[in-house]
Design goal:
The chain is mostly helical. The chain contains 15 helices and 4 strands. Helix 4 crosses helix 10. The protein starts with a helix and ends with a helix.
Amino acid sequence: MWARWRALPLRRRQILARSLGVGVLLLYPVLDRACNLQFLNAITDAAVFVILALGLNIVVGYAGLLDLGYAAFFAIGAYTTGILTWPPHGLELNFWWAMLLSVPVAALFGIILGAPTLRVRGDYLAIITLAFGEIVPIAFRNLWHIDIRIGGWTLVENFNLTNGPQGMNPVGRPHLFGYEFGFEPLPWYFLILAVGCVVVCTQSRLEHSRLGRAWMAIREDEVAADCMGVDPIKTKLLAFALGASFAGLAGAVYAAKLQAIFPELFRLQVSIMLLCIVIMGGMGHIKGVILGGMCILFFDRVVLAQSTQWVRGLGTLVGSPLLARADLSLWRWFFFGLTLIIVMVLRPEGLWPRSQPVGTVGTNEEAT
């Protein structure tokens, strides 16, 4: 059967594989309910982080820039939607408009970050993005008593923009053809699946566009790309802006799904996990990033939770208090780090690398 599959023309194999993938995604909720798996909500959350990782893939995989503060754009998209739809503000904008506005707002902050910093390279760029990723959640945590005074004039006094550490709850929910999205995971599954398909199609077009080839040229050798007419600063700035826009879109959907947003949701660990997804899956490869994201999130949300129950059951059975109180989810970062080390040793190009070798992060800086 494998020989017959290999004998098919490449184009036909691609169409059949994509059709099979779409069929599995559409039919999975039926399988989940029929088998009582109860994984649908976890997979829906994982799809949000896959969208985030695809945005980071533009910056890291295509342009070769190390971004350690990518979760900041995730927070900006979520808080943009929250500010525009939170009832105490009185705006209560329609969710679809708020989601669309979160994309250019996040892209604008990507430009604000990139414009003054993309002239630096290597470790300096990584430190700046790391600082930005820490500043944004702290800013949102403290923007709940805003006073603006000019001389003797008070323009704004004690204005609550983000509700500080308490977070914003509730956030506006989407309505579609008279149906209001609630806490049932099935509608969110199909909504996030549709958003993911748009993101994958957009990134696929970008990858094969003139801009995508310019990103890869800069990643491989910035000096050579500059000599061939590619503007390095403008091209890298577009990478930051487009990558941030994907994060803003994911943040808007995630905020509406959770119905609440808090500064603690956008800590440094989120940026590190997204970077692990991109590196583990295969930098610069859309399918590899999707595979890496689903593997890591499925392990985090499903495998660790089930393993904890099994270990506790085993501890109760054998009479071990240590095993009976074990919580493997507290060791998630240990397992992530160990898995990343194993993958980097055995498959340094990722679980699903591109057919052509992908340059490592920072290749363009080392070439200069």
